[in-house]
Amino acid sequence: MNRQYLRNIADIQTGPFGSQLHKEDYVNDGTPIVTVEHLGNRVFTKQNLPKVSDEDKVRLAKYVLSKGDIVFSRVGSVDRCSYVDEVHDGWMFSGRCLRVRPTGVIDPLFLYYFFCLEKTKQFVRNIAVGATMPSINTKLLGEVEIVYPVLDVQRKIVKTLSAIDDKIENNQKINDNLQQQAMALFDSWFVSFNRTNGEVPADWTEGTLGDISTIISGKRPPMKQAVETDGVQIPLVGASSIMGFTNAVLYNEPILVTGRVGTHGVVQRFQTPCWTSDNTLVIKSSFYEFTYQVLQRVDYVNMNRGSTQPLITQTDLKNVSIVLPPKTVLLEFEELAGSLMAMYEANRKENNRLAVLRDSLLPKLMSGELDVSDIDL
Q1: Residue 358: which residues within 8 A CB-CB, separation 6 or more?
Q2: What is the DSSP annotation of 45-102?
Q3: Which of 145, 234, 316, 347: CA 20 to 30 A from 254?
Q4: In the 8-state DSSP scheme, what is residue 36?
Q5: Same topology for domains 2-148 and 205-324, yes or no?
Q6: Can you spell out the DSSP letters for 187-223?
Q7: How does pLDDT run across 70-83, given as a tens digit for each residue?
Q8: Cα separation of 253 and 270, whole Å?
Q9: Which CATH entry fits the domain spanning 2-148: 3.90.220.20, 3.40.50.300, 3.40.50.920, 3.30.230.10?
Q10: DSSP H helical segments within 22-103, as ranges?
Q11: Tens of pLDDT along 255-272?
């Protein structure tokens, strides 16, 4: 095994400073720019991606990503990273991120998987500075010691792990399509009114989201840790993602979760035991799929009450105006959209199982405990 500090085998670059790129510079149509909330899987998540103009992309050309780069969170969850594949070549990264560009002695995907090791994540968390908001810089990240075999073995390890991630990503693409189908069905019935020749039926009424749902705030968990263990394995749900684990269950029923403080606009679905943190709003409804679609279309930007930190109240969300059809129509939509989202949930559960398999293989492959010599590239 070879050993090198990251700074010796990769170029590490901080994203553009705030003075170089402001939120006001974002545009509706342009080059996506990755920030912290889009990291954590091998490929970036695409929800709420800000974009920059062609002119800004040229101006900030040093922050353009290339295939083989790895993007790290610079603040907050500093152990999160994602790999840049050919689809995301040419995207950009924000000032809240770091870009690592490996040299030829190490396979970029091998380096990505090395940073997926729990012991590597823990090392990164330990060297981060700041108690309330951990952060890391190019110098600190450069201190991570990388242990790696020869390139041929690296690529065989990558092939094994990538086969699992490829299946996970394929399931995610199917799920994206299922979500698009459900959204198109909602738009057809409740936005364009295609079933009634573009007219709102006479027996439909004006209502609010609060008429068909209950909305309450999450709670502070009894304890929190970053890593799942035998006694601490209940997902702790934050404003945009699972932010850790706790030892108690707050909900064990179908709920929808969105951000109350901090990140707004991400709507999460949970149907298994979880704990929702106090920076979330929890929405429960007998018309789960209809409510989910409504929440996807809320104008969270104009609903924000916060001056220094974004804030949405329960009352604001309850008062969202909706066109309220009869219960029979809602139930019909639930059946159709629910069948699509049942397939979605099945794929998500399979992805969870595959992720557990990948994570169990990862340390054994990286340490050489599992022999990859018979793999034919």
Answers
A1: 161, 164, 165, 168
A2: --TT--EE-HHHHHHTGGGB--TT-EEEESBSSTT-EEE--TTSTT-EE-TTEEEEEE
A3: 316
A4: G
A5: yes
A6: IIIIIS-GGGTT---TT-EEEEGGGT-EEEE----S-
A7: 999 998 889 999 99
A8: 8
A9: 3.90.220.20
A10: 54-59
A11: 999 999 888 888 999 999
Structure tokens at 63: 């922050």
Structure tokens at 53: 């103009």
Coil, helix or strand for 169?
helix
| Rounded CA separation 347/175 (Å) | 7
How confident is the model over 283-299, as a mean pLDDT?
A: 96
Query: In Å, what is the CA distance from 323 to each residue of 30, 119, 214?
Result: 33, 51, 17
Q: Fill in the amino acid letter for 157.
A: I
Side-chain-side CA neighbours of residue 92 (13 Å):
24
Q: What 8-state DSSP symbol labels residue 144? A: P
171-220 residue pLDDT tens: 999 999 999 999 999 999 999 999 999 999 999 999 999 999 999 999 99
Looking at the DSSP bridge assignments, the partners of residue 234 are: 246
Secondary structure (3-state) at 149: coil
pLDDT tens by residue, 20-39: 888 888 899 999 999 988 99
Instruction: Give me the residue spans of the domains in the chain.
Output: 2-148, 205-324
Pairing of strands 234-237, 275-276: parallel
Distance CA 116, CA 243 (A): 16
Is 205-324 assigned to CATH 3.30.470.20?
no
Going by C-alpha positions, the residue among 94, 176, 154 that lies closest to residue 351 is 176
Reduce the DSSP state of residue 251 to 3 states and report it: strand
The label of the residue with tokens 């009352």 reads: 315
CB–CB of 46/266 below 8 Å? no
Identify the H or E element spanning 313: none
Count of residues in the chain: 377
